[in-house]
Design brief:
The chain is an alpha+beta fold and 228 residues long. It has seven helices and five strands; from the N terminus they run αααααββββαβα.
């Protein structure tokens, strides 16, 4: 990500409207710093967090590189079962390790796209990202679980992974297998990378294969319109 940003900090980031690459680097760097300090116990959560001063543009990439190394060393040296503050159901360092990896990989895709490089998210990371999104992000961050429910099936075309999620009427339910197409309101079949990008608003429904009700999929995705 830092390599992509070098000498290109003024490039616009199409997937993050209003941001330049410099803003993306700053955002990821501060997110990693927050989670690193939270995992290590230096702070106890958002109330204790104080955002650092933003470096001058000429110093931004070097600051980012140093921060990545520091956060990687902190998270790599901790047991995943260590208790820690998180916004998820899992209050452990393992949640943080996974969240930092997923935040970084999606924004790395943003940065590469901004400089004209179209690369998919690595398959194993993408599969884990879809799983994290459906199991942690959606139920914990969605402010829209009410109204008519949708049952959506997601299947990877490049692995054996599949999920069915039902959201609505005030509840949420995830199973890690695909229901029959006739039992889901909509089914999406795509590579793990494309599924992850779809869930994080980086792909449009017209860019993936959809079986069933397109309107149901769009309603589901409206429930998952989070900023990242």
């Amino acid at each position: 990500m830092a390599n992509s940003a070098e000498a290109r900090l003024d490039r616009l980031v199409p997937s993050c409207p209003g941001w330049e690459v410099a803003d993306l680097i700053w955002h990821v760097g501060t997110v990693q710093a927050f989670w690193g300090m939270t995992a290590s116990g230096s702070i106890t959560g958002p109330d204790a967090w104080r955002e650092p001063d933003r470096p001058q543009r000429r110093d931004l990439v070097a600051w980012f590189r140093d921060g990545v190394d520091l956060t990687a060393n902190i998270l790599g040296g901790l047991d995943p079962d260590t208790p820690a503050w998180t916004w998820g159901r899992r209050k452990t360092v393992g949640f943080i390790q996974r969240r930092v990896a997923q935040e970084t990989v999606v924004h790395c895709w943003d940065a590469l796209t901004a400089v004209g490089c179209q690369e998919p998210v690595e398959q194993e990371l993408a599969v884990d990202g879809v799983d994290e999104f459906l199991d942690e992000v959606l139920p914990n961050l969605s402010h829209d679980l009410g109204g008519h429910a949708q049952t959506i099936s997601l299947r990877t075309s490049d692995s054996a992974d599949e999920w069915t999620v039902r959201v609505g009427e005030g509840s949420y339910h995830l199973t890690r297998f695909a229901t029959k197409a006739t039992e889901a309101d909509a089914a999406v079949i795509a590579s793990a990378s494309e599924l992850l990008l779809l869930l994080w608003g980086r792909r449009d429904v017209n860019q993936v294969a959809v079986e069933g009700e397109l309107a149901a999929l769009k309603r589901f995705l409206a429930r998952t319109a989070f900023d990242l």
